[in-house]
Sequence to fold (607 residues):
Amino acid sequence: MLGAYTGKTLFVDLTNGRTTVERTDESLLRRYIGGRGLGAAILYDRLAAGTDPLSPENLIVMTTGALTGTASLFSSRTNITTKSPLTGMICMGNCGGFFGPELKFAGFDAVVIVGRAPELSYLWINDGKAEVRPCGELQGRNCPETEAALIEATDRKTRVLAAGPAAEKGARIACLYGDHRYIGRGGTGAVFASKNLKAVAVRGTLTNSVEVHNREGFLGIIEQEKKLFWENEFFQLWRQYGTPFIVTPMNALGILGTRNYQSGVCEFHERINGDALKDRYVVKKITCHRCPVACISLSEVREGEYKGAHCRGPEYETIYSFGSDCGVDSLPAIIRADQLCAEYGLDTISTGNICAFAMELFERGILSARHTDGLELRFGNYRGMIELVHRIGRREGIGEILGEGVRRAAEQIGGGAERYALHVKGLELAGYDPRGAKSQGLAYATSPRGGCHHTGYAEEELYDPTFDRFTIEGKGEVTRRNQDKSCMYDSTGICAFPTQLGVINQDTMSELLAHATGFPELGSAEQLMKIGERVFNLERQFNWREGMSQDADSLPARFLSEPLGEGESKGQVVEQAELLKRYYEVRGWSAEGRPTARLLEELGLRP
Fold:
C-alpha cells in the first residue's frame, strides 16, 4: 500500500472477459493526485485520437481520489471519465455516496474498462478480484431494479452504479444511477450500454478505513475540519435544506433559469424552493461516507395526482430544470420527473432542459401537435412534461429525436430551432443564467465537458453580495482560479461543497494530502493549484486532439444578444469576446485558445 492509495489498478476487457491487476503508476499519482486528474491522464494516454465514443475501443475509467475512503470528512467521491457520445469530447463525472470508498476497500485505486461484452453483463468487483458476469435477465430493467437485483445476487452491502433503459436505447443523455446518486452527464450511460455493460457492482471488506502515511498528523487536521464545519453558519443551513436552499437566493439575483432562460426570475419560486420541499415532501435525510452534513433528502408525494412518487432530492439543478425552466410550479410533478430519470437512467439537467427547449419550440410554432403526436408542450404543462420524459426514456416519437440532446435535436428539427437549443459544446446548461454571473458564463463557455456549472463554479458571484457580478474586469483570473481549484479538489476525493464554503481551503487540503500520502509534491497550496492547472490543460489538450476549435468556447446566442428583462440582473448580456480574450491571456493560451508549447512544457504535458 502506498500512503492512502491501494497501489492497484484493475483492467477489464469486456470482449473476452479478461481481468488483470497492475500496480498503479506512482508517477501519475504524484502528478495528478487521483480522481479526476488520474482519470484524464489514463484516458489521454490510452485512448486513440478519433475513437468513436460508442465503439468497443472507447474507455471507461473509474477512479478514486487520494482521500476517498479515508477518515477525513467529506471523503466520498468517485470519478468516471470517458469520451462523450453527446459532445465528442472528454466526459468526467463525479459523485458522492459510498461507491468510491467501497472500491478502495475492495483494493483498487482505479478501474479501466474497454471492449464490448458478447452479451449483457455486469462487472463484479469483490475484495481484490473481479469477473464479468452475464445478466441477460436485466435487459430493459430500470436502474433501481437493477441495483436491487445485483445486491441480492452478491451481498447486501454491495454498491452499484447502473445504466437504465434509456442507455440501452442509445439516448446520448443517459447517465448512471445507483446508491441514490446520478453520475456521468454527457452520456456515460450510453457508453456503458454500447459495451453491453449493465452495471458495475463492488464490495470490499479488505479494510473499512484506508490507512494513511501519518495517522497522527492526519487526525489532527480532521479535528480542525470538524471545528470549522460546526462554526460555518451557511453549512448549518445546508444541513437543513441541501441544494434546494439556493432556489430563492438565485431567483433574487435574477439568474434562476426560467422558461428556457427567457427570464432569470421565476414568479412561483416560493412554491418550489427549499422550504416548500422540506415542509411537505422530505421524509428522510441521507449522507455520504464520512459526511456530517446529510444534505441529501429523500422525498415522497403523499397525496394527489402523483401520490407515491419519490426521489432522491430533488436537488437544485433538478428543481430548476423541471421547475422554473419548464414553467412548472408543482413539486409533486418535479419529484415524479426526478423519479422517472432515476428509473430510465437519464441526466436530470439535460432532460429538463430538453423539455424546456421543446416547450419553447411548441409555443413558437416550430413544433406542433403533428410532431408530438398530440402532446401539448406548453410551459407549465406538467402532465405534458412527465409524458415527454417517458417518451425520451423509451425513445418513442419525438422522444427519439430529443434523446439525442438539444444540439442534435435542433439540427434535425430545423426551422430555426438551433437558436433555442441552449448548450455549450453539446451539453445542456445548469441552472445559473450567465448574463447575471459573468464568471459563471465564462466557466460554462470554457468548460472541458460543456455547459457544466461544477467545472469552475463561481461561488464569489453566487454567494458574496460584495462581489461585482456584472463587470468583466478580473473575470478571467477568477474563472481560471475556480477551474483549477475544481480540477484539484475533484482529484482528491473530497466533496466540492466544503471546499466552496470555506471548511477546507488549499492549505488545509495540502496538509491532509501530505499526511495521507507522504508525497512532498502535494505538500503546499501552490503545488496543488499547479496540479489543478495541469489537469485542466490536459483536458483541454484532449479536446483539441479530438477536433475542438475556438468556436466551441461559445455561449448560446440568447445570452449574448438578449438582455434580461427583469430582476436584479435586468439589462445584462454576456460580453463573450472580451471575456474570452482576457481569459486566454490569463491561461497562457494562444489567441485561438490553445495551450502553447511553452505552457505545456512548464506543466510537464506533451504538445
Q: What stands out?
A: The CA atoms of residues 584 and 591 lie 7 Å apart. The mean pLDDT is 96. The two ends are 33 Å apart (CA to CA). The first helix runs from residue 26 to 32.
